[in-house]
Amino acid sequence: MRSTVKTSFLRLAVITPVVAAMGLPVSSFASHDDAPFPRYGSRRLESGLKVIVHEDHELPVVRLEVMIRAGSVDDPVGKEGMAAFTAATLTEGTDTRSAIQIAETIDFVGGSLGADAGYDATYLS
Fold first, then answer.
1. What is the CATH number of the domain that holds 48?
2. pLDDT value at 38 more than 70
3. CB 59 within 8 A of CB 48
4. Angle ∠(106,111,113) on CA atoms, nearest 5
5. Where is the signal peptide (predicted)?
6. pLDDT at position 27, please?
7. Is the pLDDT assigned to residue 22 strictly greater than 80?
8. How many domains is the chain partitioned into structurally?
9. Using CA atoms, how far apart are residues 94 and 103, in angstroms rounded to an integer?
10. How far apart are CA 85 and CA 71, in angstroms?
């Protein structure tokens, strides 16, 4: 099962860009110099967590996204769905605050909270 899913994923990862590129004129493939990469800072915390920060003062907005390098591909045999279950529990509250209290606090300032498990990573935003 795992090799079938992995093979299907790899095929999709290879075929999608090829099909997308077939409909584009050669001139649409601009040089990388035309699109500069945004400036960012990077720091590793004592816990080993790597933090990458990109500041953009155009809007008064803060966005935080956490990527944990563990996804459904890392689910133990016989415990498929563990990554998705873990991601779902990340927004379900703590010992001192319920999920509703957290959601209301974040919503009050115009924010949102979400978590999702992908193939090779889990995301919290």
1. 3.30.830.10
2. yes
3. no
4. 75
5. 1-20
6. 55
7. no
8. 1
9. 12
10. 11
pLDDT in tens, 62-107: 888 888 888 999 999 999 999 999 999 988 999 999 999 999 999 9
SS3 (DSSP) at 66: strand
Cα separation, 109 vs 94, in Å, equals: 20
Question: Which residue type does 110 have?
Answer: G
Tell me the C-alpha distance between 105 and 82, whole Å. 28
Do 123 and 115 meet the contact criterion of CB atoms below 8 Å apart?
yes
Tell me which residue has tokens 């045999």.
77
Cα separations (Å) of 42 from 45, 47, 56, 65, 93? 10, 15, 15, 14, 29
- Residues belonging to the chain: 125
Query: Whose CA is closest to 67, among 119, 17, 3?
Result: 119
**Beta strand pairing status for 66-68 and 50-53?**
unpaired
3-state helix, strand, coil in the chain (%, to 5): 40, 15, 45
Confidence at residue 30, expressed as pLDDT on a 0 to 100 scale? 55
